[in-house]
Amino acid sequence: MGLWDVVRGRSRAPRNDLDALFHVPSAAVTLETTLGFTPTGQASVCYRPAAGAGFADAQADVVALLRADADAPAVGVELDGYGFTWLVVTGEPSDVAGLCTDLHAVNTTLEQHGFAAGLLCSLVPFVDRAGRRFGLTYLYKQGTFYPFAPCGDQERDTLLELSVRDVLEEELPMEPDLQRWLAVWKAPGL
C-alpha cells in the first residue's frame, strides 16, 4: 500500500492464493485420521455468471480443458436457486490432488479471461461413516477456507464446523471471521 492510499483511507483487498488449494490433499489425510471424514470425489467452483459471449466462451474453454485429459473426470455445470453457477467435477474420491488441480484450473482460467470479480468460492465435500457431510470451502476473494456443515434443510452443524476448523488451522489458512462462513445451501455434493 502506498502513501497516497493511506492518506485517502483506502486499503487493498487481500490477495487470494489459489495455490492454497494444493494443501487440501494433506488436509484430507488429517481429516480422515482425526475425525473420520473422507472426500466424496466431487468438487466445485461457484461463480456469478456474466452476460455475453466472452463469458460463455471462457466457461466452454474451462470445461473443454477439464475434459481434454484421457482420464478426465466428469464435468458439469449446474445453476442453483440463488442465480449462481456451479462448475462440478466428479472423480475418484482417492484423487483429491487431481480434484484440487481441476479447481485451480477453473479459477485460474476464469480469472485470466477477466471474470475474477464473479468468482465466489470453491468447495470440496467430505463425508463420514455416519453420513454427516461438510464442504471445505475456499473463499476466492479472501484466500481462506472454512467448513460448512449442513445438517438439515436450513440448519448447520456448528460444532462440526468448529471441530474441522480446529483440526485444520495449522494446515490451511482458515477464515478467522465467522461472519464470512457463509451458508452454501444445496451446494453440489452436500
Key features of this structure:
single chain; 190 residues; alpha+beta; Alpha-Beta Plaits; 7-stranded antiparallel beta sheet; 32% helix; 22% strand; PspAB-like
Q: Identify the CATH homologous superfamily.
A: Ribosomal protein S10
SSE pattern, N- to C-terminal: HHEEHEEHEEEH
- Structurally, the number of domains stands at 1
Q: Give the helix tally.
A: 5
Overall number of strands: 7
Helix content: 25-40%
Stretches where pLDDT is under 50 for at least 5 consecutive residues are: none
**Could you please say which CATH topology applies here?**
Alpha-Beta Plaits
- Main sheet: strands, sense, barrel: 7 strands, antiparallel
Basic shape: globular
Q: Termini separation (Å)? A: 39 Å
InterPro entries: PspAB-like (IPR054383)
Give the SSE map.
Blueprint (H helix, E strand, L loop, with lengths): L2 H6 L15 H12 L2 E2 L2 E6 L5 H15 L6 E6 L5 E6 L5 H17 L6 E9 L5 E7 L4 E5 L9 H11 L22
Antiparallel strand pairs: 1-5, 2-4, 2-5, 3-4, 5-6, 6-7
Helix pairs in contact: 3-4
